[in-house]
Structures are given as structure tokens and as C-alpha cells.
């Protein structure tokens, strides 16, 4: 199983790639009928009362991730995935700040799992095209 991060509006591309969406937002969109796992969702207070990005990161790490077991989270995701690749989804676009990037970093630091944003290539492949 490969784990990606992505955002809810990317659902059609994820489905086409055979990747199962798992929502990790505190409040998934009403139209989203897929599976959700709120074990690593930010609290209401963190979402609404963080004073800055730095404050949000500090609070999310100390109030949420510091009290979570990454192995338990991975086990739950594996059961939900049933052998499929998954994308941990929230609302923000890839270049926008989002807690899913903090979760990806946490999984890497704690379990050595490389989690990439779906559709973002670190090494773009360029093909030579002929002018004729």
C-alpha cells in the first residue's frame, strides 16, 4: 500500500488512478461519501483559534500528533484501504498549508514511510519533441 496526500477536489483523478480517498479533515465536505479517519484531524480549537501558521503547527504537533500512535493510525488506514493505495485528503490545494503535510512528515519521522502529494512530481520527466 502506498500512501499519498491530496485534497477532496482531486477525487476524479484519484479514482482514475485507482487510489482510495480517506478524509482526515475534521469536517469532510457534505458530498464526500468515502471513508474518513479523524484520528489525526485538528481540533475545532486549533482550526479556529490558532493565531498564525507557526502557532497552528506547534499546537497540532503538541496537542494532536504527540498524543497519537503512528502505528495504530497506519494499521487503521491499512484496514480501510483493503490492499489499495490511499490518499489522505483534506481541503487545501497542494501548495497551500494543510495539516495533511504535517501528518505526512510525522509518518516519515516516526515510521520511515515516504508520503508524497498525489500528482506532484519531484523529478519532472521531459520528453524530446521533434520540430518536424
UniProtKB/TrEMBL annotation:
<feature type="domain" description="DUF488">
    <location>
        <begin position="38"/>
        <end position="110"/>
    </location>
</feature>
<dbReference type="Pfam" id="PF22751">
    <property type="entry name" value="DUF488-N3a"/>
</dbReference>
<dbReference type="InterPro" id="IPR054495">
    <property type="entry name" value="DUF488-N3a"/>
</dbReference>
<protein>
    <submittedName>
        <fullName>DUF488 family protein</fullName>
    </submittedName>
</protein>
Amino acid at each position: 500500500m502506498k500512501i499519498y496526500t491530496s485534497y477532496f477536489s482531486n477525487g476524479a483523478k484519484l479514482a482514475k488512478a485507482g487510489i482510495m480517498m480517506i478524509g482526515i479533515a475534521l469536517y469532510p465536505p457534505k458530498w464526500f461519501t468515502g471513508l474518513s479517519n479523524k484520528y489525526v484531524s485538528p481540533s475545532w480549537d486549533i482550526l479556529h483559534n490558532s493565531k498564525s501558521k507557526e502557532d497552528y503547527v506547534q499546537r497540532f504537533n503538541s496537542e494532536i500528533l504527540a498524543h497519537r500512535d503512528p502505528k495504530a493510525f497506519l494499521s487503521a488506514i491499512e484496514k480501510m484501504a483493503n490492499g489499495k493505495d490511499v490518499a489522505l485528503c483534506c481541503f487545501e490545494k497542494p501548495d497551500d498549508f494543510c495539516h495533511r503535510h504535517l501528518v505526512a512528515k510525522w509518518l516519515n519521522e516516526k515510521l520511515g514511510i515516504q508520503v508524497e502529494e498525489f500528482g506532484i512530481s519531484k523529478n519532472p520527466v521531459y520528453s524530446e519533441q521533434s520540430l518536424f
